[in-house]
Amino acid sequence: MIGIVLLLVILILGRWLARRAARRKYLAALVEFRWRPDMTPIKFETCCADYLRARGWKAKLTQTSGDQGVDVLARKNGKLVVLQCKLHSKPVGN
Question: Average pLDDT of 17-38?
């Protein structure tokens, strides 16, 4: 009898945790990208990657220099997207 009750508790807890994770993923997808005037270029790159992650992409930031301009690598559904994120008030090089 205790085994059956324990099994039911585990199943109910597992289902609750799965729903909670799905809800968090849904709420994360609602995150809007918001630029702020005090944002640094590196913070801007991080926000771009976070925005993609919230929409189901696996986004990875590259190193901050020596990357030939690639700032974010993002994968989804077998596709790879390479992003160059710029937040400068004047033209910048590669």
Answer: 74
Do the beta carbons of residue 50 and residue 31 sit within 8 Å? yes
Q: Quickly list H helices, the chain.
A: 2-29, 41-54
The upper half-sphere exposure of residue 74, i.e. CA atoms within 13 Å in the direction of its Cβ, equals 21
Per DSSP, the chain holds a count of helices (H) and strands (E) of 2, 3
Nearest to 47 by CA among 81, 72, 75: 72
**Residue 26 half-sphere exposure, CB side, CA atoms within 13 Å?**
6
Give the residue among 45, 55, 57, 51 at the shortest CA–CA distance from 33: 51
Domain residue spans of the chain: 1-30, 33-94
What is the reported pLDDT for 81?
94
Print burial letters for 44-55: b (CB count within 10 Å at least 16), e (below 16): bbbbbbbbbbbe
Predicted model pTM = 0.59
